[in-house]
Design a protein that fits this description.
The complex is a heterodimer.
Chain A: H1 3-24, H2 28-48, H3 52-77, H4 90-125, H5 142-150, H6 154-175
Helix pairs in contact in A: 1-2, 2-3
Chain B: H1 4-24, H2 28-53, H3 59-89
The chains are: A mainly alpha, B mainly alpha.
Chain lengths: ~180, ~100
């Protein structure tokens, strides 16, 4: 087994375990930190795919901005975790467990079914064994991304900036206190 | 050299985890986090296909950048809505949100 493959397995394992902890960790603040770790793992995958610029952007935007803003959201909303009511009697608990099982079975089926279908498709398509070709010199450079972004993708780029502006205004208006409006 | 299938498998698993989390968790913030995980899996797919099928082409990276832009906008709006909810009804259980019901 060569080093690249070993690095891939380590990074992918860390990222998937962190993603699992995001869903299951009882403390929501810890879940936010696990999410940051998962993003770092994905940045490692980007590095292995030789997309260094995207790995940097991933760390800056996801780990730096989105994780921080979610942690701030958790602290500001001051609710923490969905509240658990007083302990109900035994037969109610059994019913609730059954209900909870049903509640989780269908999403599990959907998620596992989706992942399984995609894996099956990938296996059938023959992409699975495809090896990467070496990048030509001056292949994927930041300059190339920038030139393409400001020529072919100039209009989507401007629209993306409008989306960000609208989201900024919307977030400010939504988060304003009622009496300030 | 990593076979393309491994990377696609990783991203399918990551997306599945995010989907499961987004469907089962009742806490609004945890749902936002799960959606971010799903968007990340999509980005991995974009970059993997771009690297293996079309090496040197910057378009895969550009799509990933657009996905990140939309993710940033989404998380800002989502958290603003969650903040408002937590002020209004002191609870962010998505099952108990009914202000928009007729």
């Amino acid at each position: 087994m060569n080093t690249t493959l070993l690095a891939f397995f380590i990074v992918a394992f860390i990222s998937l375990v962190a993603a699992w902890r995001v869903i299951t960790d009882p403390s929501i603040l810890h879940a936010g930190l696990w999410m940051g770790l998962s993003f770092v793992g994905v940045a490692g995958i980007f590095l292995l795919l030789e997309a260094e610029f995207l790995a940097g952007v991933q760390v800056l935007v996801y780990v730096g901005a989105i994780t921080t803003i979610i942690l701030f959201g958790i602290m500001l909303s001051d609710v923490g975790e969905v509240r658990v009511g007083p302990e109900p009697p035994g037969w109610v608990q059994a019913g609730a467990a059954w209900h909870r099982g049903l509640r989780h079975a269908f999403p599990l089926l959907v998620a596992a079914g989706f992942a399984g279908t995609m894996l099956g498709l990938y296996t059938q398509s023959g992409w699975g064994q495809l090896r990467e070709r070496p990048l030509e010199l001056a292949g994927l450079s930041v300059g190339g991304i920038g030139r393409e972004l400001f020529s072919t993708f100039a209009l989507p780029f401007e629209i993306a900036s409008l989306v960000l502006l609208a989201a900024l205004l919307g977030a400010i208006v939504l988060a304003m206190r009622e009496e300030e409006r | 050299m990593i076979p393309l299938g491994y990377i696609l498998g990783f991203s399918a698993l990551l997306f599945g985890l995010g989907l499961y989390g987004a469907l089962t968790r009742r806490n609004a913030i945890r749902m936002v986090m799960s959606i971010e995980l799903m968007l990340n899996a999509v980005n991995v797919n974009f970059l993997a296909f771009s690297r293996y099928l079309n090496p040197g082409d910057p378009r895969g990276s550009i799509w990933a950048i657009f996905v990140m832009t939309v993710a940033a906008a989404e998380v800002a709006l989502g958290l603003a809505i969650i903040l408002m909810l937590s002020r209004r009804q002191d609870d962010i259980d998505v099952d108990k949100v009914h202000s928009l019901q007729g």
